[in-house]
Amino acid sequence: MLRDNQAAPAPESSDPRIPHALDAPDASAARAEQPGAPRWPAETGLVFWLAALAVFGGGGVLLGEQELALLTAISGLFVAAQAADLEPRWEMLYRALSWVVPLSSAAVFGALAALIFQGDLPIVSKSALLGLTSASALACLAAGLRPVGDGLARLLLRADPPSHILRLSARLILAGLLLAIPGWFALRDVLTDDSQNLMEQLSLGSGLIGYVLLALAAVGFMLRRGLRSTLDRLGLKPHTLTQAGMIVLGVAGLLLLNHGADWVQQRVFPELWKRDQDFNEALAGGLSGWQAVVLGMSAGIGEEITMRGALQPRLGLVLTSMLFASLHIQYSWYGMGVIFLLGMVLGTIRTRASTTAAMAVHVLYDIVAVLTT
Questions:
Q1: pLDDT tens by residue, 121-147
Q2: What pLDDT, on a 0 to 100 scale, did the predictor assign at position 192?
Q3: Structural domain contains residue 19
Q4: pTM of the predicted protein model
Q5: In the chain, at which end, N or C, are there fewer CB atoms within 10 A of the end residue's CB?
Q6: Which residues contact 341 (CB under 8 A, 6 or more apart)?
Q7: Quick one: how many helices (H) and strands (E) in the chain?
Q8: Does residue 8 sit within a domain?
Q9: Does residue 21 sit within a domain?
Q10: Residue 173: what pLDDT?
Q11: Beta-carbon contacts of residue 125 (< 8 Å; ≥ 6 apart)
């Protein structure tokens, strides 16, 4: 999302007719009776995903596309969780991977704590932030325990009973929500000082591929769902005349909201306003017209298919918007607050119309925002 700009993962739907894990002796037969389930055996879907993960994950590593490689790796965790829910014989594979997210999340918060400790902050503020960051790391580790993961999935995702896929989703959501405050304080100087270098390393299209893979893996494409059922679950529908009008109003509303918030920030919080503007300039100031279009499509389509398409039906409008804002730690706390409001608008469009309409609004808004930066 762009503020005058650009930001895991998403759990799958809770259709009561489609269990999260199959307890029947013949899991393949039970699975074939699920509405929207693919007709092929589970192994066919796993072969597809193994090839996709190898191509895009390996390609991301070889080409230095770190965002694509990371998103593909997370997609692989979702595929393993889906497989374990569908077929008991894959349980050990997922159990071997289930601690990746808790340990990695705790390591991230440990790195943030080190940056905060080295930072130039008042001792009281530094102590409070170190306490919050340490507590966040411990919370992520605790979420790796089955009982805690079950409770978290029930609390955030209304999962009853919890499944591997929903426990994994809840752990990622927890880490994302906890990231905002310590992440911003730890990285604000790094992002400001090195923003130009960061933008030079940004690939405008690879993130889109990663987000699409992530959304498809999260809702069980080729494993739990066929193509049509997957599109329905993600809210990807053709535009209607009514939706076209909603898209126009949505873009206008986002632009008005952003410009109004920008006007207030410039007058009330001028230092925060300058920091956010500097980042926007580094991100979009030197982009050509076609690059603005590619960036708008990458951010708009990628973020919407994961956040509003895959995640919101499970997590709800408010928490999804909070997570959406938390992942934009390149902005000030004020900027993240504005992005929360933008996410609420986009989420409402997804609920009232479709994810496709929310994508169109997000893409058009980002393109206009980049071209007018």
A1: 889 889 999 999 999 999 999 999 999
A2: 54
A3: no
A4: 0.86
A5: C
A6: 257, 261, 321
A7: 18, 0
A8: no
A9: no
A10: 97
A11: none
Residues (pLDDT < 50) of the chain are 4-30, 32-33, 195, 197-201
Report the domain count for the chain: 1
C-alpha dihedral over 166, 168, 171, 172, to 10 degrees?
-110
Paired tokens of 173: 């959501």
The answer to whether 264 touches 335, Cβ cutoff 8 Å, is no
Cβ density class 68-78: b for 16+ within 10 Å, e for less = bbbbbbbbbbb
301 close to 216: Cβ distance less than 8 angstroms:
no
Indicate the angle between helix axes 100-118 and 164-193, nearest 10 degrees. Answer: 20
3-state helix, strand, coil in the chain (%, to 5): 75, 0, 25
Q: Residue 224 is part of which domain span?
A: 27-371
Question: Domain for residue 5, yes or no?
Answer: no
Q: What is the pLDDT of residues 90-110, one digit of tens each?
A: 899 898 999 999 999 999 999
Q: What is the phi-psi region of residue 130: left when phi exceeds 0, alpha when psi lies from -120 to 50, beta otherwise? A: alpha
Phi, psi values for residue 206, rounded to 5°: -65, -35
pLDDT given for residue 195 in this prediction: 47
